[in-house]
Amino acid sequence: MKASDVLIVGAGPSGLVLALWLKAMGVDVRIVDAAGGPGTTSRALAIQARTLELYRQLGLAQPVLEAGYPIDYFNLWAEGKHRARIALGAVGAGLTPYPFLHIYPQDRHERLLVERLAQAGLEVERNVSLSGFDEHGDHVVARLHDLHDVEERCAARWLIGCDGARSAVRNAIGVGFPGGAYRQMFYVADIEGDSPALNGELNVDLDESDLLVVFATAPGGRGRLVGTVREELAERAESLQFADVAGRAIDNLMIKVTRVDWFATYRVHHRIAEHFRRGRAFLVGDAGHIHSPAGGQGMNSGIGDAVNLAWKLAAVLQGQAPESMLDSYEAERLPCARRLVATTDRAFGFLTADGPVAEIVRTGIVPSIMPLIGRLPSAREYFFRTISQTLLRYRHAPLNAGRAGRVRGGDRLPWVAYDTGDNFAPLPKPGWQAHLYGSARPDVITWCALHGVPLRQYEWHAGCAAAGLAPGACYLLRPDTYVGLAAGTPSIDVLDGYLRANGLRL
To answer: Which residues span the domain enclosing 298?
Structure first.
């Protein structure tokens, strides 16, 4: 019987990132997937800034940037008329090293992650599915089946379900997945063609009863169309072809389609698992939460789940933390999922609402005021922080403590630029680190050296104050670069007290 520290079921982006992070931290991991290979269709497109920040820790950000495509402008259409062109560009300038919206289709994304995982010495085991598992004290024994239905038993300390909305792991642990589906049916099509809307930018057309979003997937003539299917057609969704839905909204944007690479219809669901952990099993990504595609949040949120759980599993397996630390995974990520579903629900509800009042607002009022709002710095910053997931924080969860300046334990570390770089430079491998802006006290330097915690001292300047940092404060960063402890007056007692309170042995 094979054995590993961690068995991951599901090799989509969340499972692959979890495996990569665990490998980088020296954990013995196995990853299986029921599919015969990586995805060939691109369900997700957007890579958000927070994901790129986390990817930088593993040397993945630059390859994603080089292979992807930034979105510099947002175009709003209403009933066939171009109403606004809003500059995005570096909309998040000063907030992150990645202050833009970035497109990187999921099929390419998965191939990159699989290649990196293979370089790290781990291959995804394909055509392998989970039929169930038994828990035995300090480990589980999973029942795996291959393409020929041959059963294998695999022992693991921890079992992670990254296996999507129909998760076998979630079903096996008996966790409810309440929610529902939106009434509208949608279609998605990857196309090549010619149109003012196939201009390498983001285009949204709002009509009386139709919604069409055009995403650039590459410069010049290639894009993805996402639109509503009218109710009279939805009843025969299984037989629908692209020509059946290429109606008024597409005519409005003057799209001449020369090639359809992929077409599908689907209903959008919103569901959240009642728990993200039961015993020695965890749920990550779509296995734990699904929601509308508004804002391009789903895949990025799943990657955030994976990174959050990975370093905690590594800490427990390597004796740096008690098993109780793993409870903080659900405590941190489940509230994030609930907020995300609520936010995307509101956005999605507005975009798809019908009725005379909704139509007036959507096709008349919104196109008139959006250009004005798009020029307001505060509105642009709030929009970017929300979409990019840089606003996400864990202030009220266990493991996070203290306040220094405007930064609290559980916050994402604010980004600060310097002439020679920035304060987000990665460690050789993910781990704890301490940041200090200004002069460090000798006892803090000694404490970091004794505990093997890299201490990074940065010169204090006006940008540090603008970011909310405090001079002379010590920010003890978790391996996911969230602030574990913000100590305004750092000392050995304060730092040791944080370790004791959380059972940490660094």
So the answer is: 2-67+104-177+273-344
